[in-house]
Design brief:
By secondary structure, this protein is of the alpha/beta class. The protein is built from ten helices and five strands; from the N terminus they run αβαβααβααβαααβα. It starts with 17 loop residues before the first helix and ends in a 38-residue tail after the last helix.
């Protein structure tokens, strides 16, 4: 059962069709979003993990069916000089949801525990302070009424290499591969140690980490979305029925000539 909406029971084992099951879960996401909106809930979902672990794929499948007015993705760029001079969490606080909103962080304040620490973009003192302050910061978020979910996408070495090679050969996916991603391969062990330390300090009762086995992308998407739905006790709300009014009569309206306008050529 997903929430209180009681959708059809999910299939067992491997006897399901990926597209059909994804559509079923996306339909539940629509119900959940409407419940969040009407109840004035505030939801934050953090997606972290190895490069090419599939975070972007699951975020895309979550958002493609939802109303972007109340569900948005936050993927912040490298901090500016001004942001570097701010309290570390400040630029993330600005992105937190208002009532009725869902915010999905495609990477988050945990950059400091991962790439910034491993690549030397922050000092040792800044890193230690983050590990101390992060649980306190997240406790404040939860106690303020925010529903905070944290997902770590775990992918093995061989699968990550396979996906990197695919991105290098596929011009459509080539933009996903950055020099930083390449260097992360050379520092696999360092990133693994940093992840272990991060989990040790920030996997708390109020804000636990949920680990997603991402070696199989499609299964990871379904498992993550299904788990996400179970964390919010939404109810199935019947949509308001509208009556389509008659169109205003156009007795005095004359449409401009097509030749007076710039129409897109019909090449297909």
């Amino acid at each position: 059962m997903l929430g209180d909406a009681k959708p059809p029971k999910p299939p067992h084992g491997k006897h399901y069709h990926y597209v059909d099951e994804l559509a079923r879960l996306q339909f539940e996401l629509l119900k959940m979003q409407e419940w969040v909106r009407l109840q004035g809930l505030k939801v934050v979902v953090i997606f972290e993990g190895r490069d090419a672990a599939g975070k972007g794929g699951v975020i895309k499948r979550i958002t493609e069916c939802l109303n972007p007015r109340s569900c948005r993705v936050v993927a912040l760029a490298t901090p500016t000089e001004k942001e570097r001079g701010q309290w570390y969490f400040q630029r993330y606080v600005e992105q937190l949801p208002s009532k009725g909103e869902i915010v999905l962080f495609d990477r988050s304040w945990y950059n400091r525990a991962g790439v910034e620490h491993v690549m030397g973009f922050c000092s040792k003192d800044e890193y230690k302070e983050f590990l101390r302050a992060c649980p306190l910061f997240e406790e404040m978020l939860v106690r303020s009424g925010i529903i905070l979910l944290k997902y770590w996408f775990s992918v093995n070495d061989e699968e990550q290499e396979k996906r990197f090679l695919e991105r290098m050969k596929n011009p459509i996916k080539r933009w996903k591969l950055s020099p930083m991603d390449i260097e992360s391969r050379e520092r696999w062990v360092e990133y693994s140690k940093a992840k272990d330390v991060m989990l040790k300090h920030t996997d708390t009762k109020l804000a636990p980490w949920y680990i997603v086995d991402a070696d199989n992308k499609k299964r990871a998407r379904l498992n993550c979305i299904a788990h996400f739905l179970r964390q919010i006790p939404y109810k199935d709300l019947k949509p308001i029925q509208f009556e389509l009014p008659a169109r205003q009569p156009d007795n005095s309206y004359k449409r401009p000539k097509k030749s007076d306008q710039h129409w897109v050529p019909e090449r297909y």
